[in-house]
Amino acid sequence: MSNVSAAPDLDFWEFVNCGICHLEFVKENGTLSTVPFWLTECGHVVCNSHINPDHSCSECGGQGVQLMPLARELEPPMSQWFASAPTAFDAVGYALRFQMNMMANLLRYFRKKYIQYRPLYDRLKEEHAETKRLKKLVDELKLENQQLRQHLHINNGDERTLHSNKRRRVDEDVSYAGHRTSSPRSTASVPTPHGPDRLTLPPGHHPPHFNSRQSIQTYDSAGSQQSIA
Ligand SMILES: [Zn+2]
Ligand SMILES: [Zn+2]
């Protein structure tokens, strides 16, 4: 069997002949026939003596077939019809080996990368899940915070009262501190009485005599519970 591969490649041109009279296209001495040969559209070879003037194939009878002059150098795909099949298989085999090597190389590279990055991928997957969980928690806390803020807003009146009381206490502290440090700014603020304290009358007391407009304004701005009438 080993000497099969050692056999020389067949040159197919050696066997190309007219399909009707079997005239050889390549003579025994290797030169081409002086008679022109034709290759038909239907895949037959005929010598110049056996072409039909009505464009029918003299071998198969096909009608209206196109002809081209036969030569050793042909355009593909016709050139492949005359190429040595074993050589063609070798070329196919080589192409297969070349392409498979390249793909195997690429495959090995990506498999190596996959093995290298798999632990990182697993870790990132876990971290991503944790991030999602935390994001959900943040959203829930934001909502809760918003609800608490709204709740505080509803009780704003209470809060403001609380706040103003607190501020008054702070102001008093500051005034007291001003006495002690006798800084010019602090002492200046000491004799100034607090607005609401002065304008708010105890229940049952009548407002003093201003002109009527001023008195209304004063009462409005002070938010007093006293009736103007
Ligand atoms: Zn012929
Ligand atoms: Zn034919």
Automatic annotation (TrEMBL):
Residues 124-151 form a coiled coil. GO terms for molecular function: SUMO transferase activity. Keywords: Coiled coil, Meiosis. InterPro entries: Zip3/RNF212-like, Znf_RING. It comes from the Eukaryota. The keyword Coiled coil applies. One of its GO terms (cellular component) is synaptonemal complex. GO terms for biological process: homologous chromosome pairing at meiosis; protein sumoylation; reciprocal meiotic recombination. Residues 180-190, 211-229 have a biased composition (Polar residues). Residues 17-61 form the RING-type domain. Residues 152-229 are annotated as: Disordered. The keyword Coiled coil applies. PANTHER family: RING FINGER PROTEIN NARYA-RELATED (PTHR22663:SF17). This is RING-type domain-containing protein.
